[in-house]
Amino acid sequence: MGENTFLHINEEIVAKVSETMPPEEEMQDLAEFFKVFGDATRLKILYVLKCSEMCVYDIANMVGMSQSAISHQLRILKQMDLVKNRRDGKTIYYSLADTHIVTILSQGLDHIEE
Fold first, then answer.
1. For the chain, which domains are there?
2. How far is the C-alpha of 95 from the C-alpha of 26, rounded, in Å?
3. Segment (H or E) for 54
4. d(CA 60, CA 17)
5. Are 63 and 48 in contact (CB under 8 A)?
6. What is the distance between the alpha carbons of residues 19 and 104, in angstroms, rounded to a whole number?
7. How far apart are CA 57 and CA 67, in angstroms?
8. Which residue, among 58, 60, 50, has the nearest Cα to 91 in the 3D structure?
9. What is the pLDDT at residue 18?
10. What is the pLDDT of residues 5-61, one digit of tens each?
11. In 1-114, which residue ranges form alpha helices assigned H by DSSP?
């Protein structure tokens, strides 16, 4: 590489990409969203809930952890709108917030199994 090598910016491509980039705040929110998936316990809980709505006791039993530990993780998942709950008498049942979560889990697993 000598003096005659030019760095050329393709302004058309740069403009096209810039138009599609989400705003900085949305990128930060997306990063926070994906951080939640960076914990094996939370992933186990999401996979359990992918199969069935469950109460904390049953989730704790399935995952092999204490109810308090599961409750803590469920609070995080609920804050990020990944799970929702409903009350039936004294029991609270948890489920996935929507089908997007199933898609994210499935595509993530597909990717690592390739």
1. 39-113 (1.10.10.10)
2. 26
3. strand 54-55
4. 45
5. yes
6. 25
7. 6
8. 58
9. 83
10. 667 778 888 888 888 889 999 999 999 999 999 999 999 999 999 999 999 999 999
11. 11-20, 24-36, 40-51, 56-63, 67-79, 99-113
